[in-house]
Amino acid sequence: MPPAPELPGHPDYRFTLANERTLLAWLRTGLALVAGGVGVAQFAPDLGVRWGSAAVAVALVLTGVGTSLGGYRRWRRNEQAIGQDEPLPASRLAPTVVAAVGAVLVVVAVLVGVQVLSR
């Protein structure tokens, strides 16, 4: 593949396109989390306690919205850095999303355990 032509003072377009693909991946992840929250609200039982499925659904939807907004913020910051030929800024988005999803999974595991043990 021949090298991409570079205009004076303009970054390589491949970096901008890669950054855009990363944004789309964060948006897909956020959408999947929101869809999971809607699915839990619609189809899951009470999960051991009356408020269980509602709490999990809200947590998933909020995590999905936060993931999408965080992905957009990360994309903007990276675009600025690429345009100014600076190093990309550090991001806490991935560890934050992992922690949020992990917390939801722990809550789901506890609620399922309560439901199984109460039978």
Automatic annotation (TrEMBL):
The chain crosses the membrane at residues 23-45, 51-72, 93-117. InterPro entries: DUF202, IM_YidH-like. One of its GO terms (cellular component) is plasma membrane. Residues 14-80 form the DUF202 domain. Its main location: membrane. It is a multi-pass membrane protein. It is found in: Cell membrane. Keywords: Cell membrane, Membrane, Transmembrane, Transmembrane helix. The keyword Cell membrane applies. This is DUF202 domain-containing protein. It comes from Geodermatophilus sabuli.
